[in-house]
Amino acid sequence: MEGSVDATEVIVAASPQEAIEAFGDGGDVTVVAGGTIVMPEITHGRLRPRRALLIGRAGLAGVGRSDGRIVIGAGTSLADLEDAVEPLGTCARRVADLEIRGQATLGGNLCAPPGDEAPRGDLQAALLVLDAQVRSTGAGGERTEPVEDFLASGPAGRLVLDVSVAEPEAAATATVRRPHAHAYTVMRVCAARVNGEVKLAVSGAGPTAVRSAAVERAVADGAGAEAAAERVLDDVSPHDDALASSWYRGQVLPVLVRRALNDLD
Hints:
The chain is of the alpha+beta class and 265 residues long. Among the domains are: 1-58, Uridine Diphospho-n-acetylenolpyruvylglucosamine Reductase, domain 2, CATH 3.30.43.10; 170-264, CO dehydrogenase flavoprotein, C-terminal domain (Enolase-like, domain 1). The protein has helices at residues 16-23, 38-43, 88-93, 98-103, 106-110, 124-129, 147-153, 213-220, 225-229, 246-264, and strands at residues 9-12, 30-32, 51-54, 63-66, 69-73, 133-138, 143-146, 158-165, 170-178, 184-194, 197-203, 210-211. The strands form three sheets. It has a five-stranded antiparallel sheet.
């Protein structure tokens, strides 16, 4: 039967430790938090999990502070991040609709695979510019690493426990959106000044968000917003999908970067 989960072993974790033990090395485990991405995959028969680990009651949600950083549990809903530090708060508010934001989680959004019809991972660019550190477990045990490294290696086989971010001196974001029932974000540029250093990242131009070192170097060398923005295509290779062509993305992206940099000042 398409989408059947009859043969699936379902594990409901009641604590972080139970979730960690049940996840193990991540082999043959499908993690279900808010379910906004996983459940449609199961329903349409594209995913047939052998073991499903439900972490909604595992105590992995919440926002706190530690060592001068903001620590966000992986199970924290996007609705609970709408008033978060910028540009994370703005990114969370722009995801889908109220119902989706109430279910979707930080960890699920961070680990979302690329979509066929619309970009996923709406928070990735914000996390990149906020110097995010991802704490996860899996094969080899627990580790904490920069979000860039986590995205580069891929989330497969890792259970995200929490993400810590810096509180910037200034932040800005610029987007282009496609009108829809869920108002998809075609592309987003996030910028932040952290410890006096300007960081800039782009999401929606490719499978995952990416920082633009070329733009950051140009700003550090004293270039104005317009000149620095032209350097973004040194780091980003726009792609085609159902929302926009690579040509369109290539034309619009420098404009979004310029707006974000101007708003940062």
